[in-house]
Amino acid sequence: MPRSILLINGPNLNLLGTREPDIYGSATLADVEAAAQQQASTLSVTLEAFQSNHEGAIIDRIQAAARNGVDAIVINPGGFTHTSVAIRDALLGVGIPFVELHVSNVHAREPFRHHSYFTDKAIAMICGLGVYGYTAAIEFAAKHMKIKEKL
């Protein structure tokens, strides 16, 4: 059975391509997900993409990932980065290694965006690379994280 990665996108990421393109670029979430699927297939991993504007739905999907044998999570928590202890607790509760991802450089933006509830527990944190950050995060998850081979 191939290794698997869950790609989670939080609130407002469904607006990629139209929301503040000067910050987030013109690629849509559908573009990002299609590229991620293509990349995953070349890396011999499966990838499932999930987006929600709702904290509870993201928590439910993280918990389901543990039951479904997901090996790694790449998460762009969006605005929940700065507010969600609950998503942090879900990630810690399932014990699946995760990469935190942001399209913009959160450290070059408003001061409230400088704090993350995830960074100290993430295996890696990628920010400021635009949507290329998804490519880097998926490659890192597939090639460099200690993902056990499934029999």
TrEMBL record:
Catalytic reactions of this protein: 3-dehydroquinate = 3-dehydroshikimate + H2O
UniProt GO BP: 3,4-dihydroxybenzoate biosynthetic process; quinate catabolic process
Residues that span the membrane, as ranges: 122-142
InterPro entries in the record: DHquinase_II (IPR001874), DHquinase_II_CS (IPR018509), DHquinase_II_sf (IPR036441)
Pathway given in the UniProt record: Aromatic compound metabolism; 3,4-dihydroxybenzoate biosynthesis; 3,4-dihydroxybenzoate from 3-dehydroquinate: step 1/2
Binding site residues for substrate: N76, H82, D89, V103, S104, R113
Catalytic residues (positions): Y24 (proton acceptor), H102 (proton donor)
Record-linked PROSITE patterns: DEHYDROQUINASE_II
GO MF annotations in UniProt: 3-dehydroquinate dehydratase activity
PANTHER family attached to this UniProt entry: CATABOLIC 3-DEHYDROQUINASE
Full protein name: Catabolic 3-dehydroquinase
Lineage: Eukaryota, Fungi, Dikarya, Ascomycota, Pezizomycotina
